[in-house]
Specification:
The protein has 184 residues and is an all-alpha fold. Helix content is 78%, strand content 0%. The chain has helices at 2-45, 50-65, 68-73, 81-84, 89-125, 138-168, 171-176.
């Protein structure tokens, strides 16, 4: 049972990590190129447009949202490390499990549901930018909200499973483990 739960947590982590890395590899160079082209064009060639600026915002938004889960899996998210470092592995596991169960997973689930509704409505209405020469297809950007929060939700489920595994360890094995941010 323990090994299948660990396997599921690893599967979720691996999927979130691969998707996050893929989006970062694709979007970051494009974002840099578009931004450099826009800045250089505006400064030296009187070239640039609101479309380029919107594209920069959209790429940045996509990069951030699609890598939230990867950041969580890699333990790069914000937490109060000064307090957490003083907790025993069991207390850390309780904190992680409760945080995931009470805050992270429910909040992500709500954002996925309502974000998907917003993206679908945007698609059905053919929503576009409010700027006169702005970009069409606003639904693409709006769909990144539920997608990114879905990845964070999966990462939160994996962390929750690992915390439960930590809490179910026999006391002798649990107390011998060093305190630190990684569970499992």
């Amino acid at each position: 049972m323990r090994s299948s739960i660990e396997a599921l947590a690893s599967l979720l982590d691996g999927a979130v990590r691969r998707i996050g890395v893929a989006f970062a590899i694709v979007l970051l160079p494009i974002l840099i190129a578009v931004t450099v082209f826009d800045v250089v064009g505006r400064q030296f060639g009187n070239v640039g447009s609101s479309r380029l600026q919107e594209l920069e915002w959209y790429l940045f938004f996509g990069l951030i949202f699609m890598t939230f889960g990867w950041t969580y899996v890699g333990d790069g998210h914000v937490r109060i490390d000064i307090l957490r470092a003083r907790l025993s592995p069991r207390a850390q596991a309780w904190t992680e499990a409760l945080g995931c169960a009470v805050l992270l997973v429910p909040a992500c689930a709500m954002i996925v549901v309502y974000g998907a509704e917003s993206a679908i409505l945007s698609f059905e209405q053919g929503e576009r930018s409010r700027a006169a020469l702005g970009l069409p297809y606003r639904w693409i950007v709006k769909s990144l909200v539920p997608a990114g929060m879905g990845l964070l939700l999966l990462a939160g489920l994996a962390a929750f499973l690992r915390a439960l595994l930590e809490l179910s360890r026999p006391a002798a094995k649990r107390d011998a483990r060093p305190a630190g941010p990684k569970l499992g």
